[in-house]
C-alpha cells in the first residue's frame, strides 16, 4: 500500500482505537457501548446503498468505455468503512440476546465476509492501473451476493423467517366460526392478539427476553425472567403485569411506538389467564358473562357476504318513491340509499322491503320518520350503517334493530332514545359506533354502559367513551 492511500485507513483505524479505549474503561463502556449497538440498523444501510450505486456506476462506465477511477475508489472506501462499522455495532447489538443462535451466526459471519470483500474491492481499486483488474467484476458480483444474503438473514432476525415469502404463499383459509360457544379461547382469540401485537419480537428467531409466543407451549415455557403466566392469577403473571404498566415505563409491553393492546384485548388476556388450564377448551365450557360475549363477537369468522344484484324493476320502483340509490361496489349488489326530503312517502319506508337483501347503508336522517314506520328495518339483515338522526323515533325503533347482526354504525342523535333502549339494543347486538348526542341518554349512566359493553357511544361531550 503506498503512502498516498494511507489516508483512506486513518478514520477506520481511529474508530477502532476509540472502541478499544471504551472496552478498557468499564464504567464508560457500560454507558456508551450498548447505545452504539442500537445504531446498527442505521449504519448498515449506508454501505448497502453506496455499494449498489458504485456497482451501477462501474457497469455503466464499462458500457461507455470510461472508468471513473477516483469516484469508484472513494465510494468503495466509504462502503468499506461503514461495513466494518456495521459489523462492530451489530456484534454489540447481538450481545443483548433474544435472537436464535443459528440465524444470528449466519448473519454475523456473512456480514463480516461482506465487509472483507468490500475492503478487498477498495484495495483493488486503489491500484495504479487506469483500468480495473479482470477480477474486479467477478469479485464485485460475489460481494453483492454476500451483502444480499446478510441482509436477508438480518430481516429474518428482525421480522421472522417468513418475512420475504409472507405474501407469496396462499393465505390459510380459516373455517367459519359463527357461534361464540364454538370459539377456542386460546387458539381463536388470545393467540390472534399475540400474533397482531407481540409475535414480531417474540418468535422462534427473535425471542426478546427469551420468550416466544408462537404457541401456547412456548408461552408456558416462559423466558429469561421465569414463567410468563401464573395460571388462574393474572395479576401475579409477569406477562400481564408488563402489559399493564404505564406506557412511559421502560418495561411496558409492547414498547412505546409499537401497536398497543386495547382495553378489550387486555381484558380477554386477563380472562384467559384466570381460567386457563392445560387444555384449550371451547368457550361453551367456560364461565361466561355479557362482557365476554360482547368481546368475543369480534373473533367470529364469518364468510364474506356476497349480495346478489337487485332487479331493475325493484330499484326503479324505489326511486319513483323519491329515494336516491347508489351501488357501493361494482362487483357486489350492496346499495346505499337515502331520502332527501323531510316528508317520507305515504307508505313510509315499506317500499324498501323489496331491496331488503341489498341495503347496506341507509340514511333516513332529517325526515319525519316515526316508530310506526320502522317495522321494515327488521328485514334488512345486511344493513351495516343506519342513520336516523333528527327523526321522531324512540326506544321502540331500537327494538326493531335487535336482530341486525351486521349493523356496525348507528346515528341517532337529536332523537328521543333513552338508556333503556340503548341497553336493550346492546344486549342483542354489538355495533362499533353509536352517535347519540342530544338524546335522553343520561350522561351519568354512560360510564356503566362503557364498562358493560364494547360499543363506542358518542354523546358529543368529554364524558363520552
UniProtKB/TrEMBL annotation:
Residues 198-257 form the Cytochrome C Planctomycete-type domain. Gene3D superfamilies: Ribonuclease Inhibitor. GO terms for molecular function: electron transfer activity; heme binding. Signal peptide: none annotated. Keywords: Membrane, Transmembrane, Transmembrane helix. The chain crosses the membrane at residues 39-60, 72-94, 106-124, 136-154. PANTHER family: CYCLOINULO-OLIGOSACCHARIDE FRUCTANOTRANSFERASE-RELATED, F-BOX DOMAIN-CONTAINING PROTEIN. This is Uncharacterized membrane protein. It comes from Arenibacter palladensis.
Amino acid at each position: 500500500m503506498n503512502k498516498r492511500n494511507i489516508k483512506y485507513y486513518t478514520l477506520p483505524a481511529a474508530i477502532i482505537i476509540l472502541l478499544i479505549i471504551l472496552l478498557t474503561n468499564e464504567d464508560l463502556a457500560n454507558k456508551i457501548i450498548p447505545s452504539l449497538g442500537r445504531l446498527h440498523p442505521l449504519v448498515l444501510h449506508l454501505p448497502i446503498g453506496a455499494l449498489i450505486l458504485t456497482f451501477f456506476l462501474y457497469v455503466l462506465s464499462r458500457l461507455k468505455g470510461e472508468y471513473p477511477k477516483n469516484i469508484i475508489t472513494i465510494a468503495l472506501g466509504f462502503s468499506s468503512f461503514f461495513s466494518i462499522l456495521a459489523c462492530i455495532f451489530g456484534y454489540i447489538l447481538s450481545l443483548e440476546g433474544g435472537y436464535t443462535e443459528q440465524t444470528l451466526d449466519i448473519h454475523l459471519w456473512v456480514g463480516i465476509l461482506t465487509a472483507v470483500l468490500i475492503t478487498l474491492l477498495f484495495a483493488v481499486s486503489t491500484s495504479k492501473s487506469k483500468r480495473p483488474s479482470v477480477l474486479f467484476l467477478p469479485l464485485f458480483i460475489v460481494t453483492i451476493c454476500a451483502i444480499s444474503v446478510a441482509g436477508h438473514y438480518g430481516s429474518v432476525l428482525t421480522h421472522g423467517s417468513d418475512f420475504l415469502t409472507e405474501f407469496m404463499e396462499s393465505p390459510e383459509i380459516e373455517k367459519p366460526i359463527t357461534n361464540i360457544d364454538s370459539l377456542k379461547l386460546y387458539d381463536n382469540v388470545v393467540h390472534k392478539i399475540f400474533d397482531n401485537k407481540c409475535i414480531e419480537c417474540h418468535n422462534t428467531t427473535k425471542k426478546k427476553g427469551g420468550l416466544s409466543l408462537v404457541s401456547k407451549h412456548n408461552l408456558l415455557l416462559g423466558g429469561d425472567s421465569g414463567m410468563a403466566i401464573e395460571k388462574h392469577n393474572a395479576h401475579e403473571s409477569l406477562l400481564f403485569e408488563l402489559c399493564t404498566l404505564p406506557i412511559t415505563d421502560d418495561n411496558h409491553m409492547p414498547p412505546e411506538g409499537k401497536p398497543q393492546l386495547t382495553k378489550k384485548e387486555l381484558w380477554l388476556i386477563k380472562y384467559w389467564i384466570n381460567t386457563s388450564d392445560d387444555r384449550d377448551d371451547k368457550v361453551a365450557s367456560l364461565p361466561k358473562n355479557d362482557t365476554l360475549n360482547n368481546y368475543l363477537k369480534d373473533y367470529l369468522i364469518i364468510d364474506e357476504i356476497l349480495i346478489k344484484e337487485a332487479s331493475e324493476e325493484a330499484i326503479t320502483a324505489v326511486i319513483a318513491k323519491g329515494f336516491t340509490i347508489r351501488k357501493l361496489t361494482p362487483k357486489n349488489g350492496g346499495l346505499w340509499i337515502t331520502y332527501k326530503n323531510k316528508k317520507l312517502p305515504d307508505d313510509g319506508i315499506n317500499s324498501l322491503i323489496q331491496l331488503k337483501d341489498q341495503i347496506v347503508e341507509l340514511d333516513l336522517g332529517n325526515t319525519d320518520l316515526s316508530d310506526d314506520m320502522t317495522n321494515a328495518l327488521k328485514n334488512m339483515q345486511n344493513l351495516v350503517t343506519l342513520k336516523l338522526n333528527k327523526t321522531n323515533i324512540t326506544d321502540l325503533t331500537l327494538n326493531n334493530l335487535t336482530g341486525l347482526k351486521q349493523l356496525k354504525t348507528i346515528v341517532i342523535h337529536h332523537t328521543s332514545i333513552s338508556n333503556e333502549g340503548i341497553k336493550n339494543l346492546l344486549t342483542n347486538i354489538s355495533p362499533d359506533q353509536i352517535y347519540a348526542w342530544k338524546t335522553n341518554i343520561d350522561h351519568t349512566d354512560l360510564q356503566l354502559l362503557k364498562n358493560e359493553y364494547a360499543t363506542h357511544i358518542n354523546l358529543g361531550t368529554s364524558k363520552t367513551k
